[in-house]
Amino acid sequence: MASQGRPVVAVDEKQSDDLPPSVDFVSIDHRKSIRVAVDHLAGLGHQCISYIADGQSTTYSRRSKSEGFLEAAAANGLTQCHIVMPPEPSERPQFSGKELAELGRRAVATIMESYPETTAIVTFNDMTALGAVEALKDLQVSVLDRMSVVGIDGISVSELLTPSITSVRQPLEISAKEAVKCVAEQLGGRRIRKDIYVQPELIVRRSSGRRQ
User: Fold this and answer.
1) pLDDT score, position 56
2) How far apart are CA 88 and CA 190, in angstroms?
């Protein structure tokens, strides 16, 4: 489509860093989302943080978050941090809420067995955080007193849980507005490519606190 002179905007997904020069790119700053979460936990005294990622890194956002976690840990001087990718039950990518929550449950089992020194967990989305919190409850591990949990997304269900989940909100409505604006500018004659990264926002709730 871009080669035919039609406006094209890639939103939150690209297969490589080499998009055509005529294609704009609009995305949440996923690396910044993870950095905000890790900075928050490090500021509360947590030094052993585990990041729950999906085992297939199937999308640009998921790959960026995993890379961002390693960068954030290094920037905070944290040497006891781990990326946890629980075994996938199938080769099919997991996207439904139920599947993502179950991934969080499986990851917590791995963390408690392999990295028992962990005092904080970051998950690549809020549904996975929900599953992680439920698994911790089942194991009688106190969320907040023993383990802090931070999700990425900012979906409304996070504030309805007990405890409510600290989350890094990703303002998708801003991404949508920026994408529409890019299309309008291209229709108006702009030919210089734009890369736009929308900034996340930390929402502190009851699932994260100072290391005990």
Assistant:
1) 67
2) 44
